[in-house]
Amino acid sequence: MAKDESLKKGDDVTWKSHGQTVHGEVEQKITERTEAAGRTVDASPDDPQYKVKSDKTGREAVHKPGALNKNG
């Protein structure tokens, strides 16, 4: 699983969605409560989340660092 400090904008990552592995890119580190990817994200500096974008569909999602695997 990815460590928070190792993820940055532009990183190539994978995550699980509906039983499949999705490939995409980190778009943003979220460190405060905000709206992203169509939902409210309750993030903080101590509990950040990441907005990612699927390479295949172009859809955005928000995940905690533990759900993302950094490639390369």
UniProtKB/TrEMBL annotation:
Biased composition (Basic and acidic residues): 1-15, 24-36, 48-63
Pfam families for this protein: Hva1_TUDOR
Stretches assigned to the Hypervirulence associated protein TUDOR domain: 10-68
Superkingdom as given in the UniProt entry: Bacteria
Region (Disordered): 1-72
Membrane-crossing segments per the record: none
InterPro entries xref list: Hva1_TUDOR (IPR021331)
Organism name: Paractinoplanes brasiliensis
Protein known as: Hypervirulence associated protein TUDOR domain-containing protein
